[in-house]
Amino acid sequence: PLIGRLMFELPEEMGLIAVAVRQTQGKGRGGNVWLSPKGCALSTLHISIPLHSNLGQRIPFIQHLVSLAVVEAVTSIPGYEDIELRVKWPNDIYYSDLMKIGGVLVNSTLLETTFHILIGFGFNVNNSNPTICINDLIAKFNREEGTELEPLSADCLIARTVTVLERLIEVFQEKGPNGVLPQYYKYWVHSGQRVRLRGEDGPLAWIVGIDDCGYLQVHQEGQGVESVHPDGNSFDMLRNLIVPK
Questions:
Q1: What does pTM read for this prediction?
Q2: 103 and 93 in contact (C-beta within 8 Å)?
Q3: Do 205 and 159 lie in a common domain?
Q4: Torsion sign, CA atoms 104, 134, 100, 220
Q5: DSSP code per residue over the chain
Q6: Which of 87, 165, 187, 238 is the least buried, fewest Cβ under 10 Å from its Cβ?
Q7: The last residue of a domain, from among 152, 171, 187
Q8: 33/29 Cα distance (integer angstroms)
Q9: 67: enclosing H helix or E strand
Q10: Same domain assignment for residues 153 and 176
Q11: The domain containing residue 216 runs over which residues?
């Protein structure tokens, strides 16, 4: 794509973002096709991360920071704190623990001592189909709580997401994972969930959290804690399994 070529041509201090109204050839994890109708917030953002930095040594954390930034783009607005947005490991944004509302895809290229990161993120803002959108959740909240919160625009939420992400990266670079994990756990859907490892008849385990590299940690009784890598496993919430991809 054009942004992938431009990112090596621009001065390091210059930011680069591409915003789309619709997407017909979007890509998801594992080669999945990502079709996005009008009403979605769709962006590809370029950032540079030094290799010898807290985040440069833990690149998988970027997808978690972006997912958190999307959620906090909404919940950091006064009055919108209780809109039911959550993060699902490793790269999804959810309505409660019920329905996917968006996702994140990260590609990285190491050039000398700098990671050039392309972050694609998209989430439903004003499109009720094919699932549900943020403005549906706001309308639901207004009905249930008697409030009059205004619907939000895709452009506004893209801008807020980038602003929140910049702050999260700064905190991570200064303090490491522990600087952001309390915020992440506040919104994630997996606390105390039980899963089975490697198949429906596999051993039972409990989700513990995220390790120092951003991988999922599970505790298997009698076996201790082990990490599950997102590039080799997919957490299938509907079947409550961790399954090989």
A1: 0.84
A2: yes
A3: no
A4: positive
A5: -HHHHHTTTS-TTS-EEEEES-EEEEE-GGG-EEEE-TTEEEEEEEEEEESSSTTTT-TTHHHHHHHHHHHHHHHTSTT-TTS-EEEETTTEEEETTTEEEEEEEEEEEEETTEEEEEEEEEEESS--SSS--HHHHHHHHHHHH---PPP--HHHHHHHHHHHHHHHHHHHHHH-GGGTHHHHHHHBS-TT-EEEESSTTS-EEEEEEE-TTS-EEEEETTTEEEEE-TTTEEEETTTTEEEE-
A6: 238
A7: 187
A8: 9
A9: helix 61-75
A10: yes
A11: 193-244
Quote the tokens at residue 115.
């990671």
3-state SS assignment for residue 227: strand
> Do 18 and 92 belong to one domain?
yes
Domain CATH code at residue 143: 3.30.930.10
Phi (first) and psi of residue 133, to 5 degrees = -135, 170
Nearest to 226 by CA among 243, 236, 211, 239: 211
pLDDT tens for the chain, residues 1 to 245:
555 556 556 656 666 777 776 655 555 555 555 556 678 888 888 888 999 999 999 998 999 999 999 999 999 999 999 999 999 988 899 998 889 999 999 988 888 898 889 898 999 998 887 788 999 999 999 999 999 999 999 999 999 999 999 999 999 999 999 999 999 999 998 887 888 776 667 778 888 899 888 888 888 877 778 887 655 556 665 566 666 55
